[in-house]
Amino acid sequence: MHPGTAGCAYRIVQEALTNVARHSTAARASVTVRAVSSRVVVTIDDPGPPRPPVADGALSGGGQGLAGMRERVAALAGHCHAGPHGRTGWRVRASLPVLPPKARDGHRPAVTADGAEPAPRHDARHDARHDARRVQPSGPAGGPVIRLLIADDQQLAREGLRQLLSPEPGIAFLGAARDGAELITMAREHQPDVILTDLRMPGTDGITAIRRLTARTPDCPIIALTTFDTDDYLFGALEAGAVGFLLKDGDPDLYLTAIRAAHRGQGLIDPQVTRRLVRRFATPPVRGQSPALTLRETEVLRLVALGRSNAEIAAELRIAAGTVKIHVSRVLSKIGVRTRVQAAIHAYRSGLVPADEER
């Protein structure tokens, strides 16, 4: 299968299953991948029960949704359909060519499923290092390229992240480490701009790796990957210096948003992780301990604690994104923390945000 087709199929399955998890009460969903002549047909069935109709743009929790799926499939001369199935269910089905048109003519396709130059074919024997040679000359519209390094002890997870992130414009995928020790070695060798790492790994775990890396290269932001059953690891990663947290089964589009935000020095936390983190680890509110913040800085801190990005804060407060960035920097300095995660914990501990306040 052509890399562009494989990457597109992976994204479709990931986004569809994310949507099932968020918007359906079904206990399970089915994924079928079939080879039909010169095409690959991917089908995801959600059995229901009934839920309110979902508009095209509303799928995938605020990301590209169905419209994004269709764009990716269309870029490879494929077809995508989504709609009600059976009495109570929902079906997403995509038909993709095994070889996109230009690949059949002996050329690589102009774009992959995500609109980027396609990644070269992957040789799994060089999982940890071979991608370090693939450094793109520039990002979108001539912007900076983000040199990305990831770590996860599960090969399937590493391969999934590679398929998700390597085709993206502006992302130079340096490689995938299998544990914390290898991550530290590769970071020293390749000097990444952003690191994405699992927390629970054998040998040198993610927390230890984060602590050692932030001590050696404090300017390289690290995003922690977690699942709901690893709460004990969250606070340790926070103290070690992680700038953000993402759920392994979260919105795929949030990964790219978090990586780009971390590269800008902003950090991002999955809102579900924020609420779970503070509810477990924040001490009861102790008012009066925060340094004097202006009214605007207090508003910004509250929204940071709720997991808002700078762009979302700017829209809600009707101010420029650059102004939000200045306010966030001042807030971090005044309350004596380094990251937005630590600022969120401070907000809950000081009683600025009730522990049961929702995003």
Notes on the structure:
The chain is of the alpha/beta class. Helices cover 41% and strands 16% of the residues. Strands 6-5-7-8-9 form a 5-stranded parallel beta sheet, sandwiched between helices. It has a 4-stranded antiparallel beta sheet with strand order 1-2-4-3. Helix 6 runs parallel beside helix 7 and helix 10 (295-305) crosses helix 13. The chain is globular. 43% of the residues are buried. Mean pLDDT is 75; it is low at 53-64 and 104-138.
**What's the SSE pattern?**
HEEHEEHEHEHEHEHEHHHHHH
Q: What fraction of the residues are assigned to beta strands by DSSP? A: 15-25%
Number of strands: 9
Instruction: Tell the overall outline.
Output: globular
Provide a brief overview of the structure.
The chain has 359 residues and is of the alpha/beta class.
Topology record:
Blueprint: H1 3-23, E1 30-36, E2 39-46, H2 65-75, E3 79-85, E4 89-97, H3 101-104, E5 146-151, H4 155-165, E6 171-177, H5 180-190, E7 194-198, H6 206-216, E8 222-226, H7 231-240, E9 244-247, H8 252-263, H9 271-281, H10 295-305, H11 310-317, H12 321-335, H13 340-349
Parallel strand pairs: 5-6, 5-7, 7-8, 8-9
Antiparallel strand pairs: 1-2, 2-4, 3-4
Features:
4-stranded antiparallel sheet, 5-stranded parallel sheet, 359 residues, 41% helix, 16% strand, alpha/beta
